[in-house]
Amino acid sequence: MSHAIKILAIYKFVDQPDFESLKTPLAEFCCARGIKGTLLVAPEGINGTVAGAPEAIDALVGWLNDGNIFGGRFRGAEIKYSFAESQPFYRMKVRLKPEIVTLRAPEANPGRQVGTYVDPRDWNDLIDQDDVVVIDTRNDYEVALGTFRNAKDPHTASFTEFKDYVSKTLDPKKHKKVAMFCTGGIRCEKASSYMLAQGFEEVFHLKGGILNYLEQVPEDKSLWDGECFVFDERVSVRHGLEIGDAQLCRACRQPLTPADRDREEFIEGVQCHHCAGEENAARRQAAAERQRQIELAAARGEAHIGEDVRKAAEQRRLANKARREADRTRNRKG
């Protein structure tokens, strides 16, 4: 794969009552180097994913690690890199938020306490234990694409609902060991802190999240089934962080598997089985108009805004699929 674009996922929980003063310098530094994506800044820390030329991303990380910048508060942030052939984001945004991960539970303070980090290479042994409750802390549409074997799905539409799931389903007296996971690790920082505050004794979470696991653990030793949803135009990734087969419905933004796209309700760019009901008629109409504009632009030999990024991601997905099929054919012959 070409390494034309380097993608940085970063977060750190750190108390910063002056968080509002960070917006302008962060935006100016990124924009001056062609970096695009979103950074969330809140009193509890920083979180976001941005992408740009490798030298630009390296410069951003070096700047944030500089002890003279923002008092060195972002040194040691959790950082994850991946690569793409083209820019997966359209613009650069720095947003001021009440929380970098919205839970609305003041007692959840990762700066004060968090659960026990588990290295991806030790994760399988932990979740294979009979007395460990394994919980997927992500939302329902993410879980639908893939999860760890025997993991419990809280069926949440948003992370704020996790509190209700804990209060209704889990008991500190019964569930002595809890292991949690999420995409990149940040939601589990907040969730583990919350559960410790609720009296749970042993709370574990996968360090670096699913993405770290998929990168480090070989597929033949993996307990992961399916694909992992990511919040950019790649939509989903597999082991080795290869782009997966999922695509977004352009009307409701739900991730769709190939089987979902084979359903009779699916109309390219207009609707899927999630949004085919009459209550979504207005949204479908807007999506249909957008699709019409895309097709008109294609007829003129032009790219509709955002379509060049989407098509690049689709081309990478098809190339990865072809490579996997070729690998399977070689393995069968071998």
UniProtKB/TrEMBL annotation:
CDD domains with a match to the protein in the record: RHOD_YceA (cd01518)
Record-linked SMART domains: RHOD (SM00450)
E.C. numbers: 1.14.-.-
Residue span(s) of domain Rhodanese: 128-222
Reaction catalyzed: uridine(34) in tRNA + AH2 + O2 = 5-hydroxyuridine(34) in tRNA + A + H2O
Pfam families in alphabetical order: Rhodanese, UPF0176_N
Keywords attached to this entry: Oxidoreductase, tRNA processing
Matching PANTHER family: RHODANESE-LIKE DOMAIN-CONTAINING PROTEIN 7-RELATED (PTHR43268:SF3), THIOSULFATE SULFURTRANSFERASE/RHODANESE-LIKE DOMAIN-CONTAINING PROTEIN 2 (PTHR43268)
Function (record text): Catalyzes oxygen-dependent 5-hydroxyuridine (ho5U) modification at position 34 in tRNAs.
Family label: Belongs to the TrhO family.
Entry protein name: tRNA uridine(34) hydroxylase
Native organism: Pelagibacterium flavum
